Amino acid sequence: MTKILTILIVLFLCSPCIAQINDSIVAEIKKSYSEIRNNINSYDSKLINESEETIESGQVTGYYKNGELKYIQVIGLGETGKIQTEYYFKNEKLIFVFDQNFSYNRPIYWDKKTAEENGDDEVFDSKKTTVIKDWYYFNDEKLFLWIDNEKNKVDLTLGTNTIVGRGLIAHCYKLINDLKNKN
């Protein structure tokens, strides 16, 4: 009983410390993110088209500062939506992923004529696009914080959620490899 009580006390006392460490890491990531975004126009870039990224078409752009990868942007286009995923790096390690999934109200070619031909009274309207966003924070390439579209923290103690982090890392390294192999 004493051991359990001691463990609970230690956990209780350490929780604020862990939160402060995570806050500090998030602040560093945000600082790196801002630096990358502010300097992106000065970076060298490499673009590849990736048809397997989406049903329709996609492109991957890597941004480099003095040969060091800083940022990868993936854009996947489809008739009914777009996916944009941004990977941020510090010292060649993944630190942050910003994912946006755009869903259109109708396919992009759905004009008045097409709508009428299909018995529909609604046309494509970019103002009706919905966007779902997720923010993923990494430390030593391990997902430690995931903020969902409602700005809530996602529970990373669930195995399925930690798999998402590993999937993002695997995907970014596939993209890095694809960019390296581009002529």
Order of strands in the sheet with the most strands? Answer: 1-2-3-4-5-6-7
Instruction: Determine Rg (CA atoms, Å).
Output: 21 Å
- The separation of the N and C termini measures 65 Å
Q: Classify the beta-strand content into a percent band.
A: 25-35%
| Average pLDDT score | 86
Low-pLDDT stretches: 13-18
The beta-strand count equals 7
SS field, number of helical segments: 3
Q: Which structural category fits the helices and strands?
A: alpha+beta
Seen as an oligomer or otherwise, the chain set is: single chain
What is the ordering of alpha helices and beta strands? HEEEEEHEEH
Q: What helical percentage do the residues reach?
A: 25-40%
Major β-sheet profile: 7 strands, antiparallel
Structural commentary:
It contains three helices and seven strands, in the order αβββββαββα. 36% of the residues lie in helices and 34% in strands. It has 183 residues and is α+β, with helices and mostly antiparallel strands. Mean pLDDT is 86; it is low at 13-18. Strand 6 (130-139) and strand 7 form a beta hairpin. The chain is globular, with a radius of gyration of 21 Å. The protein has helices at residues 2-39, 112-117, 159-180; strands spanning 44-49, 57-65, 68-78, 81-90, 93-103, 130-139, 142-147. Strands 1-2-3-4-5-6-7 form a seven-stranded antiparallel sheet, sandwiched between helices.
